[in-house]
Write a structure and sequence with these properties.
heterodimer; A: disordered N terminus; B: alpha/beta; D-Maltodextrin-Binding Protein, domain 2; 2 domains; six-stranded mixed β-sheet; three-stranded parallel β-sheet; 45% helix
């Protein structure tokens, strides 16, 4: 029997016209879902109910309640980011030193929980931490005193670290695998010990990953309102909760947008810092 | 010539297909009386888990009107959507004070009660009277559910008799108290305890209520809304502020729970059907509302959601005598004092309450 020759598909040449046509969906996306919403927030944030220009909504961050919520959010997200970094760095190092075949499997294990809905995972923590929850049930079975875990700042930090840890591991792992092993070997050849090699070779080379990991954890942690609601029992008001309440409960979109602008300023500062340290965008690619 | 026959065949085939589908759909329609969608549609906007889904199917098969069903979580989330006109609804089920706000802002249309015979016949007089507080003349709304707000407590965890809001300030129950995470409900508790109206606009009274809530905050385990139900069933707290409709359900799940209306008075609320001004199918909306007022349908809904029904004819049909005369579902309101219904306080009032609530929450 004669073998049928399968026709090789011609490699498509993308003309200039096609190129612009292919970017059109992205352009549409960016305009409709990024630029217009941003402009709307700016409009609402800088106007009052009658539509006149005002800075009152932005200046409202200075009131005692809002400032406290902002500082609390900054504090909690900073602690969570540091914890994430401390937990993720050794893990990423271990991952990067594994054989390639093991690496992908281990990385998968850390990404796997992210396939489940974030809200569900946070609610699962609720059942774990509750007074009559799983952890306290185990403690009482062992005749140990019950712990007051839920509705505390600690529970919120736990929720943040748990939810955002993969966002720290992946950029770190990414930048660590990129380090040429011969550079590390050279350091050892030249007489550096393990600590010196880490401090002067490995860590400086992984800085882009560290920076983008920090951004990817700090920004969502700073703006979260779900974690603080579910694990903080709505007793701890973060800036994200204030904004959420202005939109959904108080119906004051102007104030909500004004506070969002302030929050965006903090995020922008973070982005600028990232840009300075991570010029090649090495760490950001997952 | 050949081409023509092909064309002819095609026409024949298409015609046959049309006939066949026509027949099939015809059959389908005659089976169900009239297929849903034949007589247009009705877009319903209701609270979450606030209707027996079977009643929607019954409405569809009986009237041939397709129901498009959407849910909201709070009055405050519902209002801007309707006000902006971004999505059009035919029937909405807001609460008392929100209905007043919608009437004030000219968002509702008057109902033609000639088209609502079941509503006229079956809804008890006392509920129409109560509706007058937010809908003078009963022109815009038909009551769907009502109830009180009270304290749900666990008999195994609370020693003393519970009859006052003040128990929520008892340090013995620190970290065992669940409060409502909504402005008006939380302030209602504090205002009532202080002997004030829960519709107070007096800055001094509100400041006193705010201070009371701040004082209470260290004792509160969590501010929650729907979760009061599950946490109380799970023995997670001793005392919780809850809507009476949830109380019956929680008692079924956990017999240790008991519901009381505190002696200082409370909120008696009504959720009613209304038709917004921009409703695309107002006739179908009236048919829907009237259908929901039919005794058998109201009974199905009561049994499913366990919120008290204002439908007297439906109440008569409840077989379980304990439920029919339940003091939770159908309390004799005459034995309580200082019962009130929320009224809309205007933008200024909303702002005042929200500001004070934020001061409580940020503490």
């Amino acid at each position: 029997m004669r073998k049928k020759m399968s026709k090789k598909p011609e490699s498509p040449r993308i003309s200039y016209f096609n190129q612009t046509a292919m970017t059109a969906p992205y352009l549409f996306w960016a305009v409709a879902f990024i630029i217009i919403p941003l402009l709307m927030i700016l409009y609402y944030g800088l106007t009052d109910k009658s539509g006149a220009f005002t800075l009152v909504n932005v200046a409202a961050i200075a009131t005692a309640e809002h400032a406290k919520a902002l500082w609390l959010a900054l504090g909690l997200s900073l602690v969570s980011t540091v914890l994430c970094l401390l937990l993720a760095y050794p893990l990423a190092l271990i991952l990067a030193r594994r054989q390639v075949s093991q690496q992908s499997f281990l990385v998968l294990i850390f990404i796997l929980p992210m396939w489940m809905n974030f809200l569900l995972r946070t609610m699962a923590w609720q059942t774990l931490l509750e007074k009559t929850g799983v952890i306290n049930a185990v403690l009482s079975f062992l005749h140990l005193p019950a712990l007051n875990l839920i509705n505390t700042p600690g529970a919120i930090i736990l929720g943040m670290v748990y939810n955002f840890l993969p966002f720290m591991i992946l950029p770190l792992y990414n930048s660590l695998t990129k380090i040429d092993p011969s550079v590390v070997n050279a350091a050892y050849d030249l007489g550096a010990n393990g600590t010196q090699t880490f401090c002067r070779v490995i860590f400086p080379l992984s800085i882009p990953g560290v920076i983008s990991g920090i951004t990817m954890v700090f920004v969502p942690a700073l703006t979260t309102f779900v974690i603080s609601n579910l694990l903080g029992g709505s007793k701890i008001l973060l800036i994200g909760n204030v904004i959420d309440q202005e939109f959904t409960q108080a119906g004051n979109w102007h104030l909500g947008s004004g506070l969002s602008i302030v929050l965006m300023a903090f995020i922008l500062v973070n982005m600028v810092l990232t840009g300075i340290f991570d010029k090649n965008g090495e760490g950001t690619a997952l | 010539m050949k081409r023509k026959t092909v064309w002819k065949k095609l026409v024949g085939l298409t015609a046959a297909c049309c006939l066949l589908t026509g027949l099939l759909t015809g059959c389908g329609a005659s089976d169900a009386g009239s297929a849903a969608g034949d007589n247009g549609e009705v877009i319903v906007y209701n609270w979450g888990e606030y209707i027996d889904p079977d009643t929607l199917e019954m409405f569809e098969s009986e009237t041939g009107i397709r129901v498009i069903y959407d849910e909201f979580e709070t009055n405050e989330i519902m209002y801007p959507k309707v006000e902006a006109g971004a999505s059009q609804y035919d029937v909405i089920c807001p609460s008392d004070y929100m209905i007043q706000k919608m009437i004030d802002n000219d968002l509702l249309q008057e109902l033609d009660f000639d088209n609502l015979p079941n509503a006229k016949a079956n809804i008890g007089a006392q509920y129409w009277e109560q509706s007058e507080q937010f809908d003078p003349g009963n022109r815009y709304s038909v009551p769907y559910c009502w109830g009180t707000v009270g304290i749900l407590y666990n008999k195994t965890m609370v020693d003393e008799p519970v009859d006052s809001w003040s128990i929520l300030w008892n340090e013995k129950y620190a970290d065992n108290i669940l409060m409502q995470d909504s402005v008006r409900d939380a302030f209602m508790v504090a205002l009532k305890l202080n002997g004030c109206s829960m519709n107070s606009m007096d800055p001094d009274e509100l400041a006193a209520a705010r201070d009371l809530l701040i004082e209470q905050k260290p004792l509160v385990q969590a501010y929650v809304i729907d979760q009061v139900r599950d946490k109380m069933i799970g023995n997670e707290a001793a005392l919780g502020v809850i809507y009476s409709g949830e109380a019956i359900y929680t008692q079924r799940e956990n017999p240790d729970l008991e519901y009381v209306i505190p002696k200082e008075g409370t909120n008696v609320w009504i959720d009613s059907w209304v038709i917004p001004k921009n409703a695309p199918n107002p006739e179908n909306a009236e048919k829907f509302i009237d259908f929901m007022c039919r005794p058998d349908i109201a009974l199905l809904n009561f049994e499913y959601i366990t919120y008290s029904t204002p439908n007297d004819a439906a109440r008569e049909l409840i077989e379980d005598e304990d439920i029919r005369n339940s003091s939770i579902a159908f309390p004799d309101l005459s034995q309580y004092e200082n019962l009130e219904t929320f009224t809309y306080l205007g933008e200024e009032g909303d702002g005042l309450y929200n500001e004070m609530w934020k001061e409580v929450k940020s503490r």
